[in-house]
Amino acid sequence: MPRPFTGDRLVVASHNQGKVEEISALLAPFAIGTVSAGALGIAEPEETGDSFEANAALKANAATEASGLPALADDSGLVVPALGGAPGIYSARWAGPAKDFRLAMERVHAELADRDRSARFVAVLALAWPDGGLELFRGEVSGKLVWPPRGERGFGYDPIFVPQGGVATFGEIAPAKKHKISHRACAFAKLVEGCLRRR
Fold this sequence. Notes:
The protein is of the alpha/beta class. The chain has one domain: Alpha-Beta Complex (Maf protein). It is 30% helix and 22% strand. It has five helices and six strands; from the N terminus they run βαβαβαβββαα. Strands 2-1-3-4-5-6 form a six-stranded mixed β-sheet. Strand 4 (118-128) and strand 5 form a beta hairpin. The mean pLDDT is 92.
């Protein structure tokens, strides 16, 4: 059974402002204050894991060790079966050192050419405690890729991803709606069920 989280503050182990804002918004109903790893000056660890779970755990453990606070990390990415699962755990690296996701989206589009455009977003949340405790929660959302990119909302690959049953990309829909249907929302629902209680 997952360990309950009873604290009122944790570190969001990310330097991605869009991701920090999304996770902080999801945590707001639980009266849990958040501070980002970036704001605390915690360096981003090298993501050496071979899975979303391994990288999420690595980031959460590094943040809790550096801060002495519980930490919540996310590792997420775009999985495209026609590209052998790429970019997958390397989704951020496809954006290059400047984290230019326009380039990353162009690369996905170019490599796909006329192949099947089915895709899914995967997110794994890792909740780590200073005493070494760790819980992992995985969420996925299936959909298809479109071109050209549409919408200025969201971040990463959102402007080219249309969730199954939808017509708008994650870059077009309102953040409140995305928070209900995204891969991160699915993982978060499992985190809530296992560890969190509304206050």
